[in-house]
Records
---
Amino acid sequence: MNCDRIAGAYRWLEYLSFGRELERRRFRHLPHVADARHALILGGGDGRFLARLMRQNPHARAHYVDSSPRMLSLARSKAGGGRVSYRLWDARVVPLAPESFDLIVTNFFLDCFDQADAGKVVARAARAAGPRARWLVAEFRPVWWAGLFLRGLYLFFRVTTGLKTRRLADHHALLARHGFRLEREERSWFGWLASELWVRDAPG
């Protein structure tokens, strides 16, 4: 999946489809990670979340991974480069130092993979997460009434970005498998959109 073709218009396409609700889902649990110092952001898109996180956490550093050069450029223009390392990589194979991050962020990203590839992304990020790390997820959740709309979204991204998957992965099972538990959740749009804060309990 490569979002270069739609990167410049992505924000406005999002606003046209969902208003500001996807932004609200991304930002909802930011106050609960105000002490984070080493963040890994996977598939962060055009950098709106990154810029907000860097303003809120003035002493934090971030590792920003995306497979779209244009999205990385947009993110850099919003958040700068002083405390952010931008990496053009596939999140399934990006090299990451073990236990080096206290915050992982996957906002509207795990829905871009089938269950097997989402498992690879989660496993790689989990190995890079510290023993008390937190994980922010903003994501679509399966609800019966949104099936047609979701199929339309997947079709659009398949045509414009080469997206392969056609259904939502179960990220709850994947995060739980790696020792994370859901601490906070808020839903909107009749349960379709979710903001989640997961935490990894210290061993022992």
---
Amino acid sequence: MGESEANWKDCVEQTIALGPESVTIYQMEVPYNTTLFQRMKDAHSEAAPVADWETKRRWTAQAFERLERAGYRIGSAYTAAKGARTRFVYRDELWRGADLLGIGVSSFSHVGGVHFQNEHEFERYLARLEQDELPVGRALELGAEERMIREFILQLKLGRVETAYFASKFGVDLLQRFRAPLEAHRAAGWLSFTPESIQATRAGLLRIDTLLSSFFRPEHQNARYA
């Protein structure tokens, strides 16, 4: 792991030297529907050939701290940007309910309150296109509460959620609606909140994806993407 950590720090320094306006960092995971996960499963091993979560969070924290020293501001659990004018319009609008039409195998879309995914097999995807069909493999029309939860968990990835936005758009008091998980995450040191906003601590931001399921509806709590 020592060599990997040195390589990671080297990568961060080289990125900063290039001077990009924005930097995106994802903590790599192995989704259940990937070839790599299937190979791991066939080998009767759950151990992924990637760093463990504690290591990935430490590396991301180190990168964020180094980027901040270089003049970047952390804008989400994954992004850092230079200058107040740099905006992630695609992310910010999508995470506030804007439509997105995905093109390609297995891509996700969100249009008019309907969340859907294209066929995940290339041959099936092409066959449906050749038949002049939309290659949609599955879809779900979201109710008002589901749309609210979707926007809330997406905006929580930014590290800060404004309660007035949800009161105005959905007529919901976030602090009351999510009182139990908010209190639990505050006690753990991951979140803080006031009547005006809910904020992730730096430690919470680094593990924000693991916190989101606690805000799902009960029937979705233990579901996983497969």
---
Amino acid sequence: MYYRKTGSGTGVGAVNRQAMKALVDGGTVPGLIGYLDGSPVAWVSLGPRGDYAKLRRSSIMKPVDDRPVWSIVCFFVDEEARGTGLAARMLKAAVDYARSRGARLLEAYPVDRDGRSHPDSMFFGAMSMYERAGFREVARRKATRPVVRKSLRPSL
């Protein structure tokens, strides 16, 4: 919920759970859940950029231009499921979902560092994963934080 809210009082715990439930109950799909053997182990948050109020004021993630774009703002893969390619499969599912909802451009804000990073700092995903999925850098406002985009064509 962090990027969907503005200000410093973005809520935690029960407040965010209630806000997320209200989104879903109202018909918004706030992201996709990945399952392994019937258990939820992965998450990707995506939607129209306008759904993420905090992005407007971010020095790193502020708009590149005025084109309509969907944004990916968060990845999570359970510790026991990491290293299995699940994040890349979640990214593919996010691309497919955004395309199916009419998005023509999908944007993300990965981490681009040499070497392995601590998982706590990787909730945006790794630049290499996005590159393998066909995303291209369109801006870089901080050395380790590019803005990447992928053009989406309609499904046939």
